[in-house]
Amino acid sequence: MTPAPSFREALAFWFRLGCISFGGPAGQIAIMQSELVERRRWIDQTAFLQGLNFCMLLPGPEAQQLATYVGWRLHGWAGAVAAGCLFVLPGALVLLCLAWIAAAYGGVGPVAAIFDGIKPMVVAIIAHAVWRIGRRSLHRRERVALAALAFLCIWWLGIDFPWIVLGAGLVGILSTRLASQPFAAESHGGSRQGGAMRSKGPAALPGGRPVILGLSYLLLLVLPVGLAVLAFGRTPFLEVARFFTQAAFVTFGGAYAVLPYIAEAAVKTYGWLPAGEMLNGLALAETTPGPLILVTQYVGFFAGWNHPGAMAPAMAGSLAAALTTYVTFLPSIFFILIGAPYVVRLAGHPVLGAGLTAITAAVVGVILNLAAFMAEQVLFPGRSADAFAIALAILAMALLLLRNLAIHWLVLIGAGIGLGRWLLLP
Predict the structure, then answer these.
(1) Residues 164, 258: Cα–Cα separation, whole Å
(2) Which of 129, 175, 284, 300 is buried deepest, with most CB atoms within 10 A?
(3) How much of the chain is in helix, strand and coil states, percent to nearest 5?
(4) Residue 424 burial by CB count (10 A; 0-12/13-18/19+): exposed, middle or buried?
């Protein structure tokens, strides 16, 4: 049996993982499978898959939550907090620097040209996500119908994303009473072979564990947000903390699912940034390590930058970005700490699984709405077709479908074409 790693060894690994966690959740989970199960044998295959199934039931970035879960199994709550934070920290620091560059120099010729080349690529990336998730999850006509209904609800009726999530989850739960089981959860499968068998993790606290952790979460949420508001004022820090805390609790189905909700609020409700900047943030988040939901930090930075009050824009942006990242990922860690001792029972729960499957189907329609919104902004600005942007979007889709090109290369190609066009046609 492979000896358990020391806490210091684990810290080094989690930081390294945070630095190399490109490729979205699928790539990040694949890295953990290879490193934790097959190479280091810190956790066995069965426990790894049970943790993955459990994380799929939760709102928030499943790859970061899976790392948090493994950290908990290895070193208790300290391991969970370390793994969850270090998975996010490197990408957050990189994206903070990129957000400052975009805010300070985004209107400068070459920088603007780079973003002009990137935006059509992002439209294609989102459209490809619709196709990829839909092909995997819409196996039955009931699921197709639910995806179509979700799209109509958000596009035509303007129903907010949290209500769509709740409605879809309820449909899935109620469907378990039907003989056909249209939203029955599909197993991730996997072998029971693998690394050395670890202990089942730290013992659960006595009966009051969820209450203790819930109160701890509220204290850790309210204290830094309250201090920031008292020191620097309500706007935009209280709005940022409130909105992104709410978003963190409805992030089912990945970052693409909640992005329309975030974009709608950030662009139209609060006026934190224009739609074009939202696309820039998504592109930058796609090319940096860490969860894609880190795009919220970019939005938070622009909220502070554009509404600094008496502060310097860079300082206000940095504080708002830090608050955004904090309230976005704090719930993810607490979900794991509360639920980890019960993971075996929860991961295979048929009712919860059906609810999640229905939410995943609805998310396809929600992401289609995001693709339509972004295409309207980038490919048909002012209701007129942009031939350059349309050509780039078609090129990007072809590279994704025919060559399965990695997203970071796709973004770099778009940046190069945009800059080359600016140099040739100033």
Answers:
(1) 11
(2) 300
(3) 75, 0, 25
(4) exposed
The backbone region for 373, taken as left when phi is positive above 0, alpha when psi lies in -120 to 50, beta otherwise, is alpha
Residue indicated by tokens 């004022």: 233
User: Which two structure tokens, joined as six digits, stand for 93?
Assistant: 């620091």
Tell me the three state secondary structure of residue 258.
helix
Q: What angle do CA 18, 83, 212 make, to 5 degrees?
A: 145
CA distances from 58 to 98, 190, 231, 336, 343 (A): 29, 21, 34, 9, 12
pLDDT value, residue 259: 84
Average pLDDT per run of 10 along the chain, which is 426 residues long?
83 92 76 89 86 82 93 93 96 94 86 88 86 84 93 86 86 88 66 40 54 92 94 90 92 77 90 89 85 94 94 96 96 91 71 83 84 86 90 94 84 92 84
Which amino acid, one-letter code, is at 288?
Answer: T
